[in-house]
Specification:
Shape: globular
Strand content: 15-25%
Order of helices and strands: HEHHEEHEHEHEHEHHHHHHEHHEHEHEH
Helix content: 25-40%
Number of strands: 11
Radius of gyration: 22 Å
Largest sheet: 8 strands, mixed
Number of helices: 18
Strand order of the largest sheet: 1-2-4-3-5-6-10-11
Distance between the termini: 17 Å
Length: about 450
Amino acid sequence: MYISLLAASLAFAGSVAAKQCQNLTIPVCISARNGVFNLPTLQGNADATTFAQNLTSIRGNFTNEVLLGYATVSGTYNISAKFCKPDVQNGTNPTVQVLTHGLGFDKTYWDLPFNDFNYSYIDVAVDQYGFSTLSIDRLGEGNSSKADPLSVLQAPAEMSVLYELTSMLRNGTLPNVPHAFSKIVHVGHSFGSALSYLLAVMHPTASDGLILTGFSQNGSYLPATVASWDSKLARLNQPLRFGNISYAAVSGAISMLGSSSSSNTSQIASSLAKYNISLGELQQLFQTTDLGDFIAGAQPTDLPHQADLPSGYLTWTDAGSNQYAFLLPKFFDPSILQFAESTKFPYTLGELLTIGSGPPMAPEFKGPVQIVTGRQDAIYCGGDCLATGDPALASIPAKSKMAFPAAKAFEAYIQPDTAHGINLHYNSTAAYNVIQRFLNSQGLAPS
């Protein structure tokens, strides 16, 4: 049966030529039970370090230490999204995939504007398999509305956004998308997977299938990840994108290093020689330290910016922190690291405090579940998803099967030669195909 479905899906994939996409701004009314935390306003980077030290300490649960209680947060926010569908829609019962990115990214994670979009998940899902997709900027990120980074931007509120968008798709009320979808799949990455999982817990009939990428329920490696990030205030780390500094101020700071003319290399080399620094060392300085982040946003193509973010928005320090958490050496294009670092997005205090807030099981979810995680994922597997220490357990993500006792099907696929940021690796499209074929095998192909 699986073979015949696979053959049919491949035949269908060959008939799809292109996609149609539209950018949307969707007003969403949310209501969520968020935590109330006793946490002082961060005044500078030293406070961000103190927060990380407290969050990662083994002395106890810092989230519980600063939790005062709970309160309902509500409001209407604009969510930026991109809806894509096949240029030619075969059949009358399309399937839409709701794509939710993780911390440090925006919706372009699913349609990466790098190397002529050769890393695009959306291209594979839509062009090759005929799915529709709705990729979103999570609340507080990208072009979506900004909100308080401690009291509002927490997992429950962001899951509420996901639920409301799903309801619109189900009811045919999503603006400019006049179709009521009977088949809706949720595809997440990392924190986006955690939100999709939370959706299945709280609203088990909202989704017809779950694809959780960069995910496991083993949180024991999260403190090491947070420590490796060496978090800074986003507004100070990339001031042109996230702060309120002017281009002139940054240009002036750069000019203090010497000549600002990149074409006059001999003059620059002469100036640097006085300080015993080579051009190669200077290049490394800007590419691998937070000096590179300081000038991120200096080009018009670096938009969108999130100017003047409050201090509760954080980001990791530099490209080294980015690589440690997301990329496997020798299996990614070095240029994609620089691209990812210069276009990164922040995370918030509220998100870090609630990232593990989901219940351990989704007992009422009955759809199929697939977890897709890179073997060398550092965040959820400590660098090796196959190192379970238990011969009966195939992988660390496979243990999550117990969390879905009513699921129609469960599969934990471990992508080789891949770390946490699956979509940024050379072999990313192989994982994309695994996902589409799983959905097709579970009766969730467009028809």
